[in-house]
Amino acid sequence: MIGSTARRRRGRTGSNGATKAFAEALGRVYADKFGLEVVALRIRTFEERPATTRDLSTWLSPGDAGRLVQAALTGPVDGFLAIYGVSANHRVWWDVPPELGYAPVDDAEAYAGEVAADDGIPFQGGPHTRRESGGWAV
Q: Against a cut of 0.90, is the pTM above it?
């Protein structure tokens, strides 16, 4: 499991990652300069049910999404906080920092027998890490 990224900065590639990094950086500026409470929600796999083996680690259920947004809007935040939007998955890759008050309930493992076979890509970016997709993790 990867430690909480609440205070860490990560590199990203491509225009999608660049815009996410920009939005988080702008949120940090507003938190630091104007004292705003800013929560960056890093939503992973948001579907009714997980569909692949990878989703068993990254899934955010609709119910947990509601709990996450409610916690982001009402929870205590001191400045800037980035949090991965994932459910309480048995195979989750990230810690959910407790300071926000988000307590996920659902676990993708309940659907483990129904998901498609593993795509054979060991990286967190899944199929987006293939060489033909830019191969940023290869």
A: no
